[in-house]
Structure formats: C-alpha cells, structure tokens
Inverse folding.
C-alpha cells in the first residue's frame, strides 16, 4: 500500500478530531450536545481566521448581515484551501434574519453519517459546516444566531438554516 | 487436391493483391485438406496484421487443435494489433479444452476491452465443460481460476468446485495455503459454501491473514460451517480494524445463535475499545439471548455515548422481556443521606471519610453531587480521587436511567406511563428530558398534565422548552394547554417563549391575541417571528388588536402588524394602512410594507 498523501492525511486527521469532539460532546451532554459543539465551532472559526492572518497576512472583511458574513467566510475559506470553490454552496436569504444554505459537497459528511447510523434524527445533527458558518456570522457580523440541519444526504446535498435568535 | 483449392492456396501466398490474398485465406478456413493447415500456419507469420488476422480466423475454423501452440505464442497473443489478439483468443477457445485456460487467463488482463471480453466468454464456456466432466484434473483448473479478478468467472469456478463436491475438497484445502490471496479468499468461500467441517482448523488461522478479503471470507465460511470451535476466534474478529470483516464476524456469530453469548459476555467484561464493545452489544441484540440482558442493562450506564446508544437499541430488540429489569433500574435512593454526607465531610478518620464517599457513589446518590464536587478540589489527594470516582458513578447511573427510559419509550407499553411521570422528579435534567420525550410520544390526558407541570416548574430551561415543544405535538384539544402557553410566553428563557408563541397558534383562543401582539416586541427575533406566525394562524380575530398596534411606539411591532394586516385580508384595514403609508415621520420600510399590504387587500376586495 502506498503512502497517504499529505492533503488526504490532513483531512483524515481533521475528521478524526471532529468526530472525537462530536462524540465527547455526546458522552458528556447526551442528546443535547449543541451548546458544547457551538462553542467548539466558535473557537475553531476564530482560530482559523487568526491563523490565516498570522501566517498568511489574510484579513477577513467584517459584515453587517448573516448572508454577507457567510459569503466573506466562504471567500476566505476558498483562499485558505478550506473549500474548493464558492459554487460548493448556495445561499438563499429567506429574509434578512434567516439564511438557507445548501452544501453541495461537504468534507464532514462522514462525521454526520456516523451519527445518523447511531440513530440520530437529522434535526439532532450538530453539523460542523453550518455550525462554523453560524460562528462566522457571530464573529464577522456580531449577530447571535441559531442553526439547524434540514436535510442530509450522504451522496448529495445537505441543507440547513441559520436564523437570528 | 482440386484446381480451385490449389488456386486459393496460390492466391493466399501471393503478395501482389492484399485484398485478394485475405479473401483467399478466409475461404481456406472452410476447406478440410491437410495442405490448407500448413498454408494457414505460414500466413500467421506474415508481417501484415490484416493477413495474420485472416489466417487466425481460418485456423479457428479449420479446427486443428495443434494450432493452439502457434496461436498462443507471444507474437500473436501480445501482438500490437487488437484484431489479431481478439481473433487469437477466439480461435484458441474454439480449438482447445481446459488446457488452454492459461492462455485465456493471460488474455483476461488485455488492455483492449474486446479481447478481455472474448477471453472471459471463452473461459466461462470451459468452466461449464469442466463441471460437466467431473474430473479431478479439471478441478485443478478451477482452483487456478479462483485467482482471477473477474467476479463472474470466479463465481462460475466456485459453482463448479461446489458441484464437483468431494473431488475438489483436498484441492480447496490446499488452496487455503496458496500464496495468491485471491485463491485463499475464494477457496475459503467455497469451503464455507460446501460446509466442509475439515476446513475449520485451516480457516481459523486465516482470521489473522494480512489480507482483509481473505479474513472476511474465512469469517463468513466459519459462520456457514458453524463448528463451535470457531466461536471464540470469531469473537476476536470483532476487534478487526476493517469494518467489513467486523460486520461479517457479527453475522457469523449471530448465525451461531445463543452459543455465542457466553464468549461474547466474557470479552465484554474486559474489552476497552468502544468500537469492539459496540460490535459485541450489537451482536447480543441480534441474538436476543435473555442471559445477556443484565450485561446490556449495565452498558446503558457507559460513559461512552456510542455504547449507551448501542445497548439501548440492542435491548429494544428484546421486546417486553426487558421491561421489568429496566423499571427496577429507574428507582433511586429515597432514604436520608445526611449521616453519610456528614461522615464524608467531617469525619476525623480518613478511612471513615473514604468509606462514606464510596457509599455515596455506590448509592448513585445525585443529592450528594455538590458535596462530592467540593471534596474533589479539597487538599487531600485520596479524598479527591474517591470523590471523583463517586461522581463518575453517579453521573453514569443517570445515563443508565436515561437510556432505560429510552428503551421503555421505544417498547411503547402504556403501562409504564407512571414510571415516566415518576422520573420527572429525578435530580438529573437528562433523565427528566427523556421522561418528557416519552410522555410526548405517549400523549393522552395524564401525559399532557405532566408535561404542563414540567413546562411550568422545571428548573432547567431546556427541559421546559422541550415540554412546550412536545405539547405542540400532543397537546391539541387539552384545555389547560393554552393557559400554560400564555404563562410560558413570559418565561425568562427565549426558547421557551418562542415555542410557547408557536403553541398558541394552534389554539383559536381570543385570550392569546394580546399576549402574542406583545410578544412581537420581544427582544429576540425568533420569538417575534413565532408570535407573528401564530397571529396569522389565529386569523381575523386579531385584526382589531393589530389595527390598534399600528399606533404602538415600537416600530418592529408596527412593521409586523402592517405585514399581518396585509396577509389577513380584511378590507377594514385598508384605510388605517393608507394613513400609515403617508404618515409623516413614519419609517420608510413601514410605509413601503403598508403600500404592499394595501395592494394585497385591494386585490382581495375586488368583487369577482
């Protein structure tokens, strides 16, 4: 067997940590891990943006709406190699306080699939991707929001909502 | 030899016209004169691929099996021309018996699809012939086919070996030691299918083969043969790092039924890996041996969520027989604990304190959590360590009660309803949460009354919120629910208020209108939004209050009132909205939404 390349191994390590975090949250908080996970995603986004700044001099523009915050985060994510392309996401503003997001290809799908296999409902998914978008809205637009996964498909698109609280 | 044949033989060797020459060679394939064979053999050495191709086709038609050794030469079977290789494979297939398998096997990996396809087709035909003949020498060939990549050929070979029966067993047992992992894998699969007991001692070592497919096949075969000496090795396969092997081991152990229970329970006592424990619990759930119930119930209190969850699902599969042990699991210590707490905190003797702390843990005494938390940070290392252990015991006991409730809920026996209601007094909010979720599932007068009490009084806002949310699902038609929702609309937690606002929308109760209008000024958008949606559900009865709200100093309330009036369709709102739309000093967005509302109402009021 050949050696695993660095990009693939990087994603594997990231997924292992993410799964570990999701599981640890459930070990201690049972069926309500969301508060813990949200805090972890807050930290994750803030660390990521700080690292992009410290190591690559990248600055993220502040935003004044949920949508623009998510857009700025996606743009910086593409530059930072977190996302392949902006077209991986579709954003629909239902109103200024609610943003529907469709994710065409999510690296974290397997982590969610594990939870679905464990018998969780879609509503119970803590979704690191949309969770990080929510965290980005908080840090970039200073808007406190809630989020929820609306649909999940291991072979296709996932959908969720970020909504102001 | 007649003159026509002589003429064709001459044309076949005449390089002047390639077209005529090819035509002549093809025609020679239908002749039976021995001289033709020599001519055709000469032609396959021609440098032109077209001539070679024609000669090979004709050799196939001519039917002399001696041609195989010429056709199998690398210059033909590895010719740069696809047509030549394809024709050669077809001709070899026509001319030969099982001895040509080697040549066909090499063609199965040809770069050209058409050649590979032809080789596979020929091989399938040969396998069928071999199976019909039922000879041991042919079985050798089938064993060699087990090394093939093509699944269809391998399956045919396995079918053939199976049909040959005892003739093939020795060869298959030898195959288990082959250096080819594919032969080991497929020999194991065949022996399993044939249920050869003698294979068991050779299959067991294959459970640690370095190739995952061989391991999986050995696991599957042992499950098919069902020799009890394989159970323990199969239990160890549950720790295989490859999920497919692990899953196959589960299926095999399930096939053994209750014979697997004891070895599984034995490993469960000392296994630290959560994935292995999960696999064991899953297997026990599938087997449904009552002897495993106590162990499964214990796992409901695991500190790993994954394990608790799997134990829960396994117990659900057992059905009503687990109800009684689970109910006894729900009871908590009711007797006084003051003497123990006092001993844990103030006893002079260190040993006495440790004993008291341990007793609190053993009693799974949630009321002692505060004390134990303090002791955990006390200066004495031994006390702190014991306090930590007792806290862990208390915490996991709460998870056990939670999971027990989930199993009872899934079993759906209404007789256990009083136990859910009793669990609402549990000191753990997670237990109360599962209790109310169960009540929400059952519904009915008693459950709704209990949910109302929780929504009003529980100290955990999340539990109150969940109770209100569940009342939306099961509270319709219960008169006390709107009263509760009106109270909950003033709850200090925003999520409770949001769900209460949504709950009010289900009841067409005039008393809800004013509180919901007030809720549209809530500081949280989610509450305001839920209140607006509920007012919309309440319909025309809200119009007067909304018209009144147009004068409110809160702009967000005016905005939502205007928007709602536009949706509700009462033309009486048109004039007030017109005034708003031109009111001096009014916000621009409210004037705009008022104009839109007037537009909607005007369309509504136009006579048909």
């Amino acid at each position: 067997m050949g050696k695993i390349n660095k990009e693939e191994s990087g994603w594997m390590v990231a997924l292992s940590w993410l799964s570990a975090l999701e599981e640890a949250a459930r070990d201690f908080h049972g069926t309500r891990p969301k508060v813990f996970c949200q805090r972890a995603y807050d930290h994750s986004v803030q660390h990521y943006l700080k690292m992009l700044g410290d190591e690559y001099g990248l600055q993220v523009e502040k935003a004044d709406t949920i949508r623009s915050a998510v857009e700025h985060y996606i743009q910086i994510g593409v530059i930072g190699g977190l996302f392949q392309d902006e077209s991986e996401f579709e954003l629909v503003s239902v109103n200024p306080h609610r943003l529907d997001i469709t994710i065409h290809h999510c690296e974290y799908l397997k982590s969610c699939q594990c939870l679905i296999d464990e018998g969780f409902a879609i509503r119970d998914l803590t979704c690191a991707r949309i969770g990080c978008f929510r965290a980005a809205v908080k840090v970039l637009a200073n808007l406190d929001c809630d989020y929820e996964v609306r649909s999940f498909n291991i072979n296709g698109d996932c959908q969720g909502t970020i909504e102001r609280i | 030899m007649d003159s026509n044949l002589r003429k064709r033989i001459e044309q076949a060797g005449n390089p002047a016209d390639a077209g005529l020459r090819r035509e002549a060679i093809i025609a020679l394939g239908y002749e039976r004169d021995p001289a033709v064979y020599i001519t055709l053999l000469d032609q396959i050495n021609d440098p032109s691929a077209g001539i070679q191709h024609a000669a090979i086709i004709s050799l196939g038609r001519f039917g002399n099996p001696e041609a195989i050794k010429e056709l199998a030469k690398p210059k033909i079977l590895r010719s740069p021309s696809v047509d030549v290789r394809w024709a050669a494979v077809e001709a070899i297939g026509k001319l030969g018996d099982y001895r040509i398998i080697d040549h066909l096997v090499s063609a199965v990996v040809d770069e050209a699809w058409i050649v590979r396809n032809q080789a596979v087709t020929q091989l399938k035909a040969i396998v069928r012939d071999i199976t019909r003949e039922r000879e041991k020498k042919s079985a050798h060939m089938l064993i060699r086919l087990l090394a093939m990549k093509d699944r269809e050929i391998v399956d045919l070979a396995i079918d053939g070996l199976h049909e040959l029966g005892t003739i093939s067993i020795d060869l298959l047992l030898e195959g288990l030691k082959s250096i080819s992992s594919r032969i080991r894998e497929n020999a194991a699969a065949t022996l399993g299918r044939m249920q050869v007991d003698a294979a068991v001692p050779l299959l067991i070592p294959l459970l640690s083969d370095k190739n995952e497919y061989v391991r999986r096949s050995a696991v599957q075969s042992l499950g098919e043969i069902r020799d009890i000496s394989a159970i323990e090795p199969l239990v160890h396969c549950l720790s295989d790092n490859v999920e497919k092997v692990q899953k196959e081991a589960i299926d095999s152990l399930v096939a053994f039924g209750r014979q697997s229970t004891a070895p599984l329970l034995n490993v469960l006592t000392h296994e630290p890996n959560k994935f292995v424990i999960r696999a064991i619990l899953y297997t026990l759930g599938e087997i449904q041996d009552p002897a495993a119930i106590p162990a499964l119930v214990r796992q409901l209190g695991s500190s790993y969520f994954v394990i608790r969850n799997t134990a829960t699902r396994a117990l659900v599969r057992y059905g009503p027989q687990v109800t009684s042990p689970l109910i006894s699991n729900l009871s908590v210590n009711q007797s006084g604990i003051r003497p123990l707490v006092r001993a844990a905190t103030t006893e002079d003797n260190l040993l006495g304190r440790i004993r008291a702390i341990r007793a609190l843990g053993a009693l799974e005494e949630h009321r002692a959590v505060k004390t134990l938390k303090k002791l955990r940070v006390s200066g004495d290392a031994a006390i702190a360590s014991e306090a930590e252990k007792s806290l862990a015991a208390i915490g996991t006991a709460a998870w056990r009660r939670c999971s027990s409730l989930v199993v009872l809920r899934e079993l759906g026996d209404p007789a256990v309803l009083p136990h859910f209601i009793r669990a609402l007094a549990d000191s753990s909010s997670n237990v109360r949460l599962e209790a109310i979720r169960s009540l929400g599932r059952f519904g009915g007068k008693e459950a709704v009354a209990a949910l109302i009490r929780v929504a009003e009084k529980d100290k955990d806002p999340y539990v109150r919120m969940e109770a209100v949310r569940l009342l939306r699902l099961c509270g319709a038609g219960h008169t006390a629910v709107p009263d509760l929702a009106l109270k909950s609309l003033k709850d200090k937690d925003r999520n409770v208020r949001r769900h209460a606002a949504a709950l009010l929308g289900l009841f067409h109760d005039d008393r809800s209108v004013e509180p919901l209008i007030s809720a549209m000024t809530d500081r949280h958008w989610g509450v305001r939004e839920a209140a607006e949606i509920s007012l919309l559900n309440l319909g025309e009865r809200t119009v007067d209050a909304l018209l009144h709200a147009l004068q409110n100093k809160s702009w967000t309330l005016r905005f939502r009132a205007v928007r709602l009036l536009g949706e509700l369709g009462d033309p009486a709102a048109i004039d007030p909205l017109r005034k708003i739309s031109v009111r001096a000093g009014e916000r621009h967005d409210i004037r705009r939404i008022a104009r839109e509302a007037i537009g909607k109402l005007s369309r509504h009021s136009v006579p048909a």
